[in-house]
Amino acid sequence: MTNHGTAARAEDIRWMRMALGLAQRGEGCCWPNPNVGCVLVREGRVVGRGWTAPGGRPHAETQALARAGDAARGATAYVTLEPCAHTGKTPPCAEALIGAGVARVVTALTDPDPRVAGGGHAMLRAAGILVTEGVCSSAAARITEGFLSRIRRGRPFVTLKLATSLDGRIATASGESRWITGPEARRAVHALRARHDAVMVGIGTALADDPELTVRGLGMDYQPLRIVCDTRLRLSTGSRLGRSASTVPVWMVHGPGAPASARQAWQETGAVTISCPLGPQRSLDPGEMLGALGDAGLTRIFCEGGGQLAASLLSAGMVDRVITFSAGLALGAEGRPALASMEIARLALAPRFRLEALEALGPDICATWEPITA
After folding, report:
1. Residues linked to residue 158 through DSSP beta bridges, in sequence order
2. What pLDDT does residue 6 have?
């Protein structure tokens, strides 16, 4: 990264943090594109700003340039991800910045997409624009983690949510689970859904709860899509998900042996059906499933269980964050556990996580855990 002195560095951090805040506005609504923020600054004043629009375009840079107009000439552009250098459905953002006459571009991350991968920076430098890279890169990597995961690993970033009693149960022996946690925790879950491209559950949860999996109470004008992992397509099209599939997208991920009649019935509701291979346990193979969802463009998935799906993702090492909501009640050994069997014989084989955040939500506790990698 080019060094422009302590004062310039502090200014760069200040404006990049603003751009990062704008980038967060695109979480959950701009896939398959990355959520990017852009701030144009001239003579210490913001003259334009933008973030990736729902659906992935217009891009952040072009929105900021449109708002700035002629004031963009001679300005510094702070962009959370390297401006694109390829022509897709829109011209390259690097080209737009050059055409607008910006004097300097400051970025947080290099775009790992092979179509860009340093090409945007190179295009800007070739046009005589001063480029500074790597400002607030760690914060940018977290905000853009879904896109980075899809490009680098070929799968979405997966957050697993578990809402349990003090003793790790998600329901009573009879299956009663509404409500283990209080209204503050449930509102937090809706906010988390809104920040993800998709909400995913297993067939056990879909059958037991008949959920809607929508975001409610936040005044949103868009919804994440809903995914059910249902090997045999047992869920009825008369379920809440089936009845609403024509208005809020539903994807049914199933095994190769799912009945053709069930596939057709779901497709007639407007749902998308995705066939995936089975793993050794005769359930959907987690890696193949997430790879297919990544190929379809998803970058961030919020998994709400149940126990079998959660256990399979954890066992496969494909959970990137765990968020737990713990309520102050105990349900005992007869209650239903949050996780199905993982066949862990020794502690050394258990997936481990590091506590990143802890907060009280009404009567409940919310904890955020990150995986400990070797």
Report:
1. 301
2. 56
Pick the range with the lowest mean pLDDT from 12-21, 31-40, 111-120, 167-176: 167-176
pLDDT tens track for 230-268? 999 999 999 999 999 999 999 999 999 999 999 999 999
DSSP line for 121-153: HHHHHHTT-EEE--TTHHHHHHHTHHHHHHHHH
Chain CA centroid to CA 219, Å: 20
pLDDT at 1: 43
When pLDDT is cut at 50, 70 and 90, the band that residue 179 belongs to is confident
210: CB partners within 8 A, 6+ apart: 239, 240
What is the pTM for the complete model shown?
0.92
Q: In the chain, count H helices and then E strands.
A: 12, 16
Alpha helix (H) residue ranges in the chain: 5-23, 60-68, 93-100, 119-126, 137-143, 145-153, 183-194, 203-209, 240-244, 260-269, 286-295, 307-315
By the 8 A CB rule, do 83 and 61 touch?
yes
Neighbours of 184 (CB within 10 A): 14
Active site residue 61: yes
In the chain, the amino acid numbered 327 is A
Q: Which of 100, 108, 164, 162 is nearest to 131 (CA)?
A: 108
Task: Report DSSP letters for 269-286, one per residue.
Answer: HT-EEEE--B-TTSSB-H
Closest CA to 111 of 119, 101, 103: 119
Contact by Cβ (8 Å): 197, 156: yes
Q: Is residue 294 within 8 Å of 287, Cβ to Cβ? A: no
pLDDT tens for 214-235 read: 999 888 888 999 999 999 999 9
CA atoms within 13 A on the CB side of 105: 34
Tell me the percentage of the chain whose pLDDT exceeds 70.
Answer: 97
Task: Spot the catalytic one: 27, 61, 82, 95.
Answer: 61
Please list the residues that pair with 159 across neighbouring strands.
302, 321
